[in-house]
Amino acid sequence: MFFDRPDSGELAVLVHLEIPQSAESDDPREFEELVLSAGGDPVELLSGQRSAPHPKYFIGTGKLEELQALVQQHQAELVIFNHELSPSQERNLEKALECRVLDRTGLILDIFAQRARTHEGKLQVELAQLEHMSTRLIRGWTHLERQKGGIGLRGPGETQLETDRRLLRARIKTIGKRLEKVRKQREQGRRARNRADIPTVSLVGYTNAGKSTLFNAITDAGVFAQDQLFATLDPTMRRIGLPDVGPAVLADTVGFISNLPHRLVESFRATLEEASSSDLLLHVIDAADDERQRNIEQVNLVLEEIDAHELPCLMVYNKIDLLSDMAPRIDRDDQGRPVAVWLSAKNAADNPVNISLLFQALAELLAEDIFQQSVYLGAAMGSLRARLYRHNAVLNESYTPDGICELEIRIPEADLKRMLSAENIALDDLLKQPEQTDYQQLAV
């Protein structure tokens, strides 16, 4: 007698065990939020403690009987474990419970599949799902191990299972090639930005920390933002203007979570490379979350996995509107450099100081050495004067009695040097007092 897997449903019984030997214990509240984000309807949470997972069912036989009773009591169609299950454990549990069983990785993959909108995002999710599925092809379909027989069904000796595995490997290879093409396109875009000296700033952080709300407040991009886990999946990039820096690119990325499945990190590497090649990371943190420090540590672990842990980083403590008597501010280190910004992205429209403080911190961290003082331009330097105005570098303009233009300018030194090189003018000549400069000679 062969066991056919039942259809998936929405009513779900959740299972969470405390296992002391586990390296990281996932929060049951976060687990329930994940289920809700996936569209599930949690009806019961079965919790317990074991010294080690049961090799056959993950939970012990006593807990298995409790779980069977809960499934029957609530007529649940789905049991979700807040743990990583082996393929054999999933298969054994489904036979015993006669309903669909899902582990934490499968749950996150399902959420990602719902959120993917772009072609690239769908490819990344499909790759992660196929790699997860490749070890679970047998599951309940034990009849697939037999070879086909009968007229028109005789093949080269492959079982149906072997055929499926071969097709699966071919599909994984095809998607891998497409994502490699995406990765090269992204790399080409990054090289173009580097040539144009346009810095890239990436928003990273724990899921539901408010990255997309902050992104919308800065760029008016209209990115989907919702108070739920993994509301953002597809990366979005927008051009912004920063004082003393000029144009910059701001990238919104997928949120991280504790014990983020490794295959998801691998599948989304093309997207996460955007963060690992940034000039600055904005680590967005939910300031009102009780698990704030733990979430910061989990994000740092993922950043280390994608080789982005050594990049310059500005901490952005968001959602201060949920804290009492907290006003937007910038925290600085002993050298006066910004290290953290406290703000409320949700209230940015009503209180623009939230975003202005963030822009101020970004400008201080990204701006090169700034040249700010008066320079003197003769009549033959009208072209340089026009360049400085186009760059919005002129703070004040006046004229000496002999008609020499005196400009007070503020501009990154690198930009000024490029302008002077194009005009074939030495900086020292601009800094001299009018009577010391032979402007007729400069004009020649």
UniProtKB/TrEMBL annotation:
One of its GO terms (cellular component) is cytoplasm. Residues 199-370 form the Hflx-type G domain. Keywords: Cytoplasm, GTP-binding, Magnesium, Metal-binding, Nucleotide-binding. GO terms for molecular function: GTP binding; GTPase activity; metal ion binding; ribosome binding. It comes from the Bacteria. Mg(2+) binds at residues 212, 232. It is found in: Cytoplasm. Its main location: cytoplasm. Coiled coil: none annotated. The keyword Nucleotide-binding applies. It holds the Pfam family GTP-bdg_N. Its cofactor is Mg(2+). PROSITE patterns: G_HFLX. GTP binds at residues 205-212, 230-234, 252-255, 318-321, 344-346. NCBIfam families: GTP_HflX, PRK11058.1. Belongs to the TRAFAC class OBG-HflX-like GTPase superfamily. HflX GTPase family. Monomer. Associates with the 50S ribosomal subunit. GTPase that associates with the 50S ribosomal subunit and may have a role during protein synthesis or ribosome biogenesis. This is GTPase HflX. It comes from Teredinibacter turnerae (strain ATCC 39867 / T7901).
